[in-house]
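Q: I'm writing up a methods section and want to include an example of the input and output format. Could you take the sequence below and give the corresponding predicted structure tokens, formatted cleanly so I can copy it straight into the document?
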Amino acid sequence: MDSTEPNQQAVRAVLDAALAAGRTALTAPEGKAVTDAYGIPTPAEALAETVDDAVALADRIGFPVALKIVSPEILHKTEAGGVRIGLNSTAEVRGAFLSIVTNVRAYDPEARIFGVQVQQMVPAGTEVLIGTVTDPTFGKIVAFGLGGVLVEVLKDVTFRLAPATRDDALSMLDGIRAAEILRGVRGGAAVDREALAGLVVKVSRLAADFPEIAEVDLNPVFASENGVMAADVRILLTREVPAARRTYTREEILASMGRLMKPASVAVIGASGEQGKIGNSVMRNLIDGGFPGEIHPVNPKADDILGRKAYKSVMDVPGEPDVAVFAIPAKLVPAALEEVGRKGIPNAVLIPSGFAESGEHELQARIVSIGEEYGVRLLGPNIYGYYSTWQDLCATFCTPYDVKGGVALTSQSGGIGMAILGFARTTRTGVSAIVGLGNKSDLDEDDLLTWFGEDPNTDCIAMHLEDLKDGRAFVEAARATVPKKPVVVLKAGRTAAGARAAGSHTGALAGDDAVYDDILRQAGVIRAPGLGEMLEYARALPVMPTPRGGNVVIITGAGGSGVLLSDALVDNGLSLMEIPPDLDAAFRAFIPPFGSAGNPVDITGGEPPSTYEATIRLGLEDPRIHALVLGYWHTIVTPPMVFAELTARVVAEFRARGIHKPVVASLAGDVEVEEACQYLFERGVVAYPYTTEKPVAALGAKYQWARAAGLL
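A: Here is the clean output for your methods example:
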């Protein structure tokens, strides 16, 4: 891969000249100068102002050649009739030059025509697209996919943050649906992967080095076994510079989050003794939830609230509270927040609505400014509050929850927060925290990831989000967290069209969700397709041991379940282990002659508990098998709880011996299988009734995390 340093000064001169002229697009000769400066291979070319110039240049470059219009107003040259390719003679060049100029004048009479570009014809190869866009969430991103005329039809494109590394670029080559084409099909030669990946890296670095480059579009790029060459280059510029966001160091985040999640003292601004008021609900939850720290109600009209001394102002509260919970109308928040700042309280939990979500952007900007001035981190506004169960802290006006565990859950929506609460209670899922984020005026997902990544009480993090304020900060926090524990994300709005006017193929293809999907995967997080999946993954991932390899075996009492479980494995990026002859023979020793070994191992439905136990034992004993998927079929011979008890007992025995493999189960049967699944789940076997998809999806999520964490 070429490591030649780019000539940034040459690019700076081109960009400055274009912007000084009031242009937002580079001409083809300017694009050539920029690509040359970064070592991006493009064909030999020159600008012809007259037809005689074109003939002379074609003769010098060598036939065949292509002719393309050069005009700052004509971005899509083909649409304007401004392109002719495969010209093999002087006569063809003359005719093409005159035809191009005539077509463009008819297409846009006002367009300025600088001339016609005479370009060497590019050697044949596979047509791909490489480009960059400036995404509002993630900043500069690079795109790769099939190119040419098919790009907007097939939309086979993948995205990464720019600048991309060599490994990022190689993963992009493998990340499109048509990846096999690049490896060579039907006797065709594979493309030069190192050259193609190197081109992705160079283009991504070009965009990242210059904020004023809004989009780069190389389409088509011809890739072959002999290298790569960009046949057409389009570079768009912008004068807009994103506003700088206030950032905090990792140490600052951990310090403030530590006092938020493990407070010794909480002040409730707007506390009330009157039932039905939010300030009353917050106080009751703090007191009834058993919070062992100090609780200070603040209300200028009361002396005592729920048996606690009330203070006229937060300034009168003794000591240094760690958190101020706001339960007052939005219009009163700024003045109270000023007092919180002067008091030196580091965290404000803003329950009130009536800010940006209702159009009051100036009011929200005001509280953000106050928070920054005094160093107060803001959670919210427009939230239900938060739960920190290991501290017995319930700072919310919603129902309490006190089942301690290892799952941290966050949501941008109050309704989703309550769905999380109900799910946790129904499934008896232990949580370390439930946090509402609301408008995310300040604290957001990357702050929480940074904290939960270090929190010894948290084993898995699940986040519902509608947007990210700073996609790069989130990716950085996720990359630091994922090697230690899984992160599951439910990104709402995945069907949004990303309707943004775009001046290039790359821009048109970079729909919001496509970018989120690829970059969340790049960050190593598990993206859940829906709320149910997010919650189930969060519940299941801490239960399963980490797999040490990719060999998955299905043991089933029902052939039909085996087929569906096999399909589910493929759907979730997993594959069935090819059973070697000795292992096949070992399984056959336990199953009836009319059963089926291989994979799935079909023990048939009428088998007694001993057959289930023997085959599960074999699956756990053999070191070549890394994960088990069990398919149970309800019979009187082996009732559901008998199956559950024997499975849990065998799995526990092997884990006591130091053999930890993920085991998931699908139970088909009458209603008794529901109790059996709960029994198994509580004992480390992820089990679901009436479905073959859910247990395998959970296993697939565990594998996805293990790969991202570098554990496979």
